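Look over this record as teaching material.
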Amino acid sequence: RLTFKNLFEHISETFFNYDNKLLRTFIDLFKKPEVVIDSYVQGVRKRYVNPVSFFGIILTINGLNIFIISKFYKKYVNASSIVGDLDSAQNEATKKIMTLSTDISLEYASLFFSLLIPLAALVSLIVYHNKKYNYTEHVILYLYSMSVYSILSVVFGLLVLLTFPEKYMLFGSVMYLFVFVYHSYIHTRLFKLSAKQLILKILLFLVVGFILYIGFSILSVLLLLLTGTVDLQDFAPKK
């Protein structure tokens, strides 16, 4: 009969056994990411967890993490803490946008995280247009890499919230730096880049990404204005 003991043993064997594909996939995405990613692209599908399943598991874990943050730690993830006491941020529009962005980012975190994959793949395709990967294969790359980022964000993020919750936004900034370094590492190994090529690709990636970010920001503000969430008078500096 099914008991808690053998259920726990099955879960342990599935997720924590060194020989299982899930743990092997996670470890090798650090040790030899080019092998994990390129193996799947080249048709080797049984050695590692496929990227869609891997990402699906991560979304489930991430959803639980968002629930915990929303329930117990929401005050520590307020976007307004990023701008602090800057004079340029002391207007009603900025305050409304910051509050709204915090609520929306928590409520639709999994959706935004999922949409980030095809957007990052598009930028990557533009930057590495002269390499061997097509758009779909770039999506595979980011399904794997962003899953690793999410795992580490959840695990270490919860530790930060349990110990120094007021430092959580700082932790988020550190994780952005990790994403930058980790993807530079993956791209270097996957596309066999020299130091000079890597620097040029990083600069191009930042330029293309910044253009997309500005475009998205403008569209977001226009949407807020059209829906009446903010008004042009809200942008006036606080007196």
